[in-house]
Design brief:
The complex is a heterotrimer of chains A (about 500), B (about 120) and C (about 230).
Chain A: H1 5-24, H2 32-53, E1 56-59, E2 70-73, H3 75-98, H4 104-123, H5 127-145, H6 151-182, H7 187-197, H8 203-217, H9 226-232, H10 235-261, H11 264-286, H12 291-312, H13 315-346, H14 357-360, H15 362-376, H16 383-396, H17 400-429, H18 445-463, H19 466-480, H20 482-490
Antiparallel strand pairs in A: 1-2
Chain B: H1 2-26, H2 30-51, H3 76-107
Helix pairs in contact in B: 1-2, 2-3
Chain C: H1 7-27, H2 38-51, H3 56-64, H4 66-87, H5 103-125, H6 134-151, H7 159-182, H8 207-232
Helix pairs in contact in C: 2-3, 3-4, 4-7, 4-8, 5-6, 5-8, 6-8, 7-8
The chains are: A mainly alpha (about 500), B mainly alpha (about 120), C mainly alpha (about 230).
Amino acid sequence: MVNPAFLLAVPLGLAFIVPLLKFLAPKIPKFIPPLALLFNVVVSALLIPEASEEPVVSSIGGFSPPFAINLVAGPVGVLLSAFIALIGLLVAIYSFDYIREGAEEKYYALLLLFLTGATGVALTGDIFNLFVFFEILCISSYSLVAYLGDRSGVEASVKYLIQGTVGSSFLLLGIGLLYGQFGTLNMADIASRIEATGSTSIFIPLVLMITGLGVEGAIFPLNAWLPDAHSSAPSSISAVLSGVAIGIGIYGVARVVFTVFGAEPVFQLLAIIGLLTVLVGELSAFSQDDIKRLLAYSSIGQMGLIVFGLGIATPAGVTGGLFQLLSHGLAKALLFLTVGYMIYRSGSMKISGLRGMSKVTPVASFGFAIGAFSLVGLPPFMGFPSKLMVIRAALAKEELLFLVLVAFVLLGTVIEGSYFLRIVQVLYFKNRESDSKGGYHLLPLSGLIPICLLIVLLVIIGVYPGLISNFLSSAASELLDRTGYITAVMG
Amino acid sequence: MNFLSGYIYYIGAFGLVLIGLFIILLKSNLVKVIIGINILDTGVNLFLISVGYLDRGTAPIFAPGVQIEASSMVDPVPQALVLTAIVIGASVLALALSLTIKLYGHYGTLNLEDIRGQRW
Amino acid sequence: MKDLRSPRGIIALVLLAVIAAGLSLTITEIPFGSPDTKVGSYYVENGREETGAANIVTSVVTGYRALDTLGEVTVLFIAAMGLSAVLAIEKKKRKREVEESSLVLSTGCRALFPFILLLGAYLFIHGHLTPGGGFQGGAVIGSAFLLVYLGYPERRISTTGTDVTESLGGLAFVILGLIGFAVGSSYFLSNFLPKGELYSLFSAGILPLIYIAIGLKVGAEFGGIIDRMMEETR
């Protein structure tokens, strides 16, 4: 049995020495994150068989919960940590050639710490520990958005920082209120006490915590920071931000709502908020000309869809929401990585500047098309089964509210389809006026590997969703089954 | 009056939180907003600490030769939480100030309304 | 200052009123002075035997909830690195006239510097016996460096030294956590050294070692942060 603590300890330890290795050999630092992330992928894969039976609970320090912090590597935790490590690995490889300026070793250390923070949030079973790892995630993302030090990056980072810090303070306030009422910080312990007392005064801490985690998860109306931050960051960082960070924010909300509070009245509210987020995101994306800003708004829209799926609160709905989280992560990472290279080659961040890029960067354009089709939900890509699952779960609920909401969700998908297809049309069917870089360029190897791997994954899982859908449904039942979680941790 | 004397700490902490939020929402100078963030953090930390107070309790430290009842100590957990929260708040402050320096170098002003390189 | 009657001002005031109302509702749930401490009282009762530290807050911070402390150390590390990454881009060589500090100030600083360092070191070495600990001691050491900058504005500490100390401090913490696996425990951050005699300096297993690593790391970090900011604003 592998101890899940390794998933956190090893990347942390390696991240601490990355800046040191610069003194030994300037070339080494950039190879450390891929090694650490590969280790994480392997360990997560090793944990999968055990986690599907029963969550692997690992206490830190040898004391037993609730007197110690414990990591809960259940289906959700292992799934998310594998997902985070995989995307991180691909982005780290892409960064080899993409990041050429600035203090490179700091970039790699920050990237590794960012991913460790995300993994920590996914695995922890203690609410204050959630706050600490969430802060690791947030603060490293503030640093990475500002990494290039340029005008828009620093401005976006400051605005992101202000909003994110207010959110974190709300989260901490909610945690303080919970501790004051229940005297413990362990998620399972709090869940069992809430179940026992059924007190209604937990509403305020619940709202505070959802707000705090929701800032990072970009739920409406807390998403004002996202378009600036994701579009001004280096493209490799935009990929992990859109793919991993906001997904983990949504996971935090889900864990708090489902497992800790079990708050049924909130579910419908979540579905409505999810829908509003979808509409806000997709409508704003529709009229954008700046390609990265468009992708950022599209991320908001997709987060709304995930929240909607979670708000359905049936096993099918939650499974669909989690599936959508994965498929968005992979597709959006692919989109940002390809866009990064296309921007570099064409010199323009606008869609009009990408005319005919399919002739200049054929692989990147093809990757963009695949990612776009998957995001919209066209078969045979991964987005199709995930969206289908969410919509079917909503229809299966057979309530008028959900039928109305589904109609609007489909409207959002139509809007999404129209602007993505417009971009693909520009890429493939328009001609370039002036070829400043001349001829067509093949991606460097470090860019080729991640993009091709993502394309392959999107296709394979799209055609055989059964590969992961079983694991996803056990993940969904872990989120929904409060008593199961409590017994697994507290015994 | 007894009610107030007990809860004055909570009221004070929430007051600081509200003042901090007021500053963040309504001031347009970047440095003032950062100060507002600091006040907000301080308010939350004060609240956390006051949660753990035990009436007539003492610090949770044992000393040789002094008889201290374990049950007369204040709760040590909020102290550990606040220790972490203060350090995190200080780190955010350092990062925010460095970004402010950079931003001033780019824009020449600290007024958030003028710092609008990004369009809608 | 934003006009309070503008739309944004009104929304802000409404929001604050809602938050104030919500918070005041929760006050009655948490009686002041008689906390419902299941976990807290366990720590106070059993902290001495289970971790060997006389300062129960230390046993909570570095024993029971050591993972939180590791995360906190990481946050400070991230901030220091983010700060140096952001500020390192251009070095504008504007030589501003820096005023020489007076003789009294510089002599006073030079005299006080070693004592402040000593105090900081005392705080983090004795963290398990007296109030104090890694962060407190590290902050005191950071203030010692600040004093040097005030007294001798031309001096700089070598950022290589602080970077190396930071990284090694963090690495030491993680390795201390992992050694437990090698000596037979199956938990991360388990206390594998003997607990020793209560109240003596060499007690409480790895807790003082963790605090020493943290103290050095935090001191170096604050020194590095101050140095970089001073460099930027010359």
